[in-house]
Design a protein that fits this description.
There is one protein chain. With 296 residues, the chain is of the alpha+beta class. Among the domains are: 12-133, Rossmann fold; 228-295. It has helices at residues 2-23, 45-55, 68-72, 118-129, 157-170, 177-203; strands spanning 27-30, 60-62, 77-84, 91-98, 104-107, 111-113, 228-233, 236-240, 246-252, 258-263, 266-273, 276-283, 286-292, 294-295. An 8-stranded mixed beta sheet has the order 13-12-11-10-9-8-7-14, with no helix packed on it. Strands 1, 2, 3, 4, 5 and 6 form a 6-stranded mixed beta sheet that branches. The longest helix has 27 residues, at 177-203.
Length: 296
């Protein structure tokens, strides 16, 4: 009983320490391609990790779309890495959070899955690994610069005090570095929102896209106002238009508001954000986000 109590106490202390460490970082940087994989966003791992981090309240960004303040100071961010220790029959993943110098800040539990299909397996394993962050109450707090201490040493004490007073009087008003750093996080909110808005607009496209489902001239993504109706199938839903024709298939994941999606030759994920269903997929090297009007 005593041993168990000691283990729980140490674990809880480590958890609080990790939470404090995470609060010191403003951004969580997700690579478009993890080192464990050969292809960009292979098995949709990058998209999934960024989505789950954002859902848990972390400010997640891709490594090729850094905000200006992070681009100039990489130590504002935590850099996410994915360790893949999968075997022939089991998919195993662990997420490691590192600082700008490569030092480990936090490591999740190992997520496991025995699903044979790779996308579903990595989806389940990463989701289980992410449970290690469920109890973290994250709130960015800028690290304060170390305060200067003044040591008085007998004969030099009066001289040091006078020099300090003269320096303070000569310092220009309104450019105190410490004060500027403390106010900076409040001023970054609008910039971050603007950055996110810019990212969404750059990927968003309402132009019709050729589809292999139905005739070649039909649009793969619904036009404004068009509704796709969800019909339940064995492992998810199929979306049909008013014709009716099947336009897309959704496959269930561990998150009830997120599906793996297949529409013609395009595969990605469909998730709900602020009441709007979004189809997110890669077109070459570009991440595309398109709104869907789904009725379940």
């Amino acid at each position: 009983m005593r041993t168990l109590l000691i283990v729980l106490t140490v674990s809880f202390s480590n958890f609080l320490s990790a939470q404090t460490d995470l609060n010191n970082y403003k951004y969580f940087v997700v690579p478009k391609r993890f080192e464990a994989f050969r292809k960009t966003n292979q098995y949709q791992t990058s998209t999934l990790v960024k989505y789950l981090l954002s859902e848990k309240g972390f400010n997640a960004v891709y490594d090729d779309a850094l905000p200006p303040d992070l681009a100039s100071d990489r130590c504002l961010g935590i850099w996410v890495d994915l360790l893949d220790d999968s075997s022939m029959f089991t998919t195993k993943t662990t997420l490691v959070l590192k600082d700008c110098n490569g030092a480990d800040i936090f490591e999740t539990q190992q997520g496991k899955s025995k699903i044979k299909e790779y996308k579903s397996a990595y989806n389940e394993a990463i989701g289980e690994a992410m449970q290690s962050l469920d109890g973290v109450d994250y709130e960015y707090t800028a690290m304060e610069a170390p305060k200067e201490t003044l040591t008085l040493n007998f004969k030099n004490d009066v001289r040091s005090l006078k020099n300090k007073e003269i320096a303070e009087r000569m310092e220009p008003k309104g450019i105190n570095t410490d004060k500027v750093q403390r106010k900076a996080p409040k001023n970054q909110n609008s910039m971050v929102v603007q950055e996110a808005t810019t990212e969404n607009q750059s990927y968003k496209s309402l132009e019709p896209v050729p589809s292999n489902i139905g005739s070649k001239n039909e649009s793969q993504v619904p036009e404004n106002g068009e509704i796709w109706y969800a019909q339940e199938i064995a492992n998810g839903y199929q979306l049909v238009d008013s014709t009716p024709k099947v336009r897309m298939k959704l496959f269930k994941s561990s998150n009830e508001n997120m599906f793996m999606a297949q529409s013609g030759e395009k595969s990605g994920m469909v998730y709900q954000k602020e009441g709007q269903w979004i189809f997110e997929y890669y077109e070459g090297e570009n991440l595309v986000q398109e709104p869907l009007n789904i009725k379940f």
